[in-house]
Amino acid sequence: MYARSLGDDGATLGPLEPWQAGEFLAHMDRGREFIGRYNELPDVVRDMESSRAYLRAYAEKTATDSGRICGIRLADGTLVGAVILRTMDVEQGVAEAGCWLEPAAAGRGLVTRAVRLLIDWAVEERGIHRVEWWVASANAPSIAVARRLGMTRDGVLRESYLYRGERHDMEIWSVLAPEWRAAHGRAAGAERD
Description:
Layout: E1 4-5, E2 12-15, H1 21-35, H2 41-44, H3 48-63, E3 68-73, E4 79-89, E5 94-101, H4 110-124, E6 130-136, H5 140-148, E7 152-163, E8 166-176, H6 177-183
Parallel strand pairs: 5-6
Antiparallel strand pairs: 1-2, 2-3, 3-4, 4-5, 6-8, 7-8
Helix pairs in contact: 1-3
């Protein structure tokens, strides 16, 4: 198993797999209300069976090169969040990134650091040209992540997302591979740090 450092605080980013369903469910239970403000995941992952099914679906996406899930862990190994490539179309060069975090880990920059690694991998290793970030307009913390990542707001899909009986505007943010490389001082195909 591998893990990538997220910085000096000892936090790491690593794959999540179906055999970790119990740990994933415990994480979801700790953050269910906080995560569920704008994300339907807590409604999907309710018990051990649904937790395993969710991680199995991402294992299949990994196997077919159409998505990814990576867990964010604190220095003590506690799973506190995740970043995903919800969709990844390598042929078209387009992917959609996403994230969540339980409340105890919020405000530490973990998501921004983790998504940076994920986007860097998608652009440099998988040749993704456009990474999208879909976010409810009311989700200010997630919009702040998009800004910190250097993404551009492409537009708003007004009242396009029905969630828990309420219609939400969804913003689409994106970053293109040339923009990503320029922001990180790399040319296409250049070696990573």
